Amino acid sequence: MIIDYARNLLAAFIGLSGGLAVGSGLVALLIVFDLVPRLAQVARAYRMSAWFETAIVGGSMYWTFADFLDWELALPKISVLIFSGLLDGIFVGMLAAALTEVMNVLPILAKRMNLSDYLVSLVMAMVLGKTLGSLFDWLYYQW
């Protein structure tokens, strides 16, 4: 009985420690890269930055509860796939664009590799490569 209690206590401690580490990493990412203020600047919605922060916290809380409580939506499969795929794509695209812009990866890369004249082509190649690679993976390997 005491051993079971100790195991459960250890599992709870490890779980809370892991959650604290992941949460701290996310907060550090948001603060160090100034993602919320940069998103407000790009969206020209300076007065709504509190709403962006609230959306991040609210989304984190919602999906935590959805995961822990095994929430399910009774929707047709195709509509869920289209809607969630659209939202996931928007999220990943905005996050990648924000990280790329904040870190100034592309200008530094183009300057070091003497590709400054081809920066637009480089970006388009990356976008098309990512899109075609995702489509290939989804259509070929997932089906």
TrEMBL record:
Keywords: Membrane, Transmembrane, Transmembrane helix. It holds the Pfam family SpoVAB. This is Stage V sporulation protein AB. The chain crosses the membrane at residues 12-36, 48-66, 78-106, 118-141. The gene is spoVAB. It comes from the Bacteria.
